[in-house]
Amino acid sequence: MTPVLLIFFVLAGLAVLGALSLVLQKHPIHSALSLIVVMVCLAGLYLLMGAEFVAAVQIIVYGGAIMVLFIFVIMLLNAGEEERTDFSKIAKFAGLPLALALTASIAAGVAKSGANVAGSGQQVIPGATGQISSMLFKEFVYPFELTSFLILVAIMGALVLAQREKK
Amino acid sequence: MIDSLLHFVSQNAFWIITIVKIALLLFIVLTVNAYLTWFERKLVAHIQARWGPHRVGPHGLLQPAADGLKFLFKEDPTPAGVDRFVYYLAPFLALALSLTSLAVIPFSPKPLELFGQKIYLWVSNPDIGLLILFSITALSVYGIALAGWASNSKYSLLGGLRSSAQMISYELALTMSVVGVLLMANTFSLQGIIEQQASAKWGVGFLGWNLFAWTRNGLLWPQIIGFICFFTAAIAETNRAPFDLPEAESELVAGFHTEYASFKFAMFFIAEYTAMITVSCLATILFFGGWLSPFPDWSQTHPILNALAIHIPSITLIPFGLWVIYDGIKYETIWGKLVLPVIGFVMFAIGAALIALPAVNNFIQPVFWFTAKVFVFLFFYVWARGTLPRLRYDQLMNVGWKLLLPVSIANVIFTAAVVLLRSKP
């Protein structure tokens, strides 16, 4: 087993464990912490694929900014432990088969393109940051700018909503 | 037996070297941390016309050891009703993250050649060094926020919210203020950023630093504003005075670490001091040319000045060593009379050895300049703490959002314009 493969399995295993714990934990903060573990493990997986910039951004944006916001909200609301309820009858009966079907379809997709996926783990893309930025600012400049405009609108909307409450 | 051992070592040289490097770096950093507390207490005391620690060992030099022992042997109560897992996780998270960030700091470009291996003076030198540092900064909010939340105390919770809000706010200004440097360096690699600053007008070393940005090809946009924004934001990001609202030891209940005692408190403390060192290293690398000497290379034109320039480590160490010997001889206690001259003699001997061994002196140059610059910033940290009054919380938020962020964005725009103009023929 090569070191790269070993690191992959450790990170992948941690990510799966984190995702399971995210669902199974009773306390919102513990769930949020599990989600951070998943994010950081995903960043490690990106790093393993040679996508250094994406990995760093994954941690800065998702692991840092967004999850801090989650934790902040949970702390401010002082959310306590959740109570377990099983009110959804559909989930009780259809949940497991549907989950299995989803896993099977993803596994089938991976198995179909198996050779390509395995190969991408080994090669290192040099200067990935430069490639991403030239793509963002040359080929996809309009979608990129429009997205940032969308985010700006969202921020302004949030501000308007927050201001209205004060009056 | 020995053969197979040697075979194993040569097969796994990379891992062994890396582990030894990590252990050595941790040892050095933790020692520097310990003496940074001594240095800070001494300096703040002298700023306030006091003596500072001077009972434990000569000039209080053993005070860090005493403090460490005290932290180890103190009772470590866990408050009732805490969230145990998160309560124990928080100090580990804070300490581990701040120590990890040191792994990507390059201290010198010259490798040490030992047993046929080139050993570089960094643990790791990735292409995205700066981004890794920022991602670690982004994660280090959790240590504080979780410590505040898990302690099951309203003072801790308020303190944790206060400090994480501060860290999140200043992270933006911190990131924006280095974009100017990135635009000029064209890389995220810390080594690349330093090497780009080696090009200086007339070969006068310090003009090439990003602070002045006067390269061989002409004047770029000097990053003085960027540096001021960076360092201000970094002081706030590391929760130091005058932005030390997370602690505010003289005004508020301590904050996120109210409910932590003993070594768990010490872990937060060590994390804070390590962050100080990291920020000082980063300021050195980004704005002050890292390991580059401020002097021009005179070796061709003026041999005497060149000899002076490369012997600066000895020129500082020898007189300081002699002064420590002199100070030790007239010290009050017998213990000090014995120890201080020995320390002074060691400094003197190192200085003399550097003159006697040009190869070692040559090797140590980058490390010396790097350390000297880092030390200046550490001094600046303590100086700021000793002289500036603490900001009020609303002032703190105003400085971060309404002053630092717009100014650093303006700096980015100007830098981009100048870089664009210069890059066109």
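Chain A touches chain B at residues 27, 29-30, 33, 36, 40, 43, 52-53, 55-57, 59-60, 63-65, 68, 71-72, 75-76, 127, 129 (CB under 8 Å).
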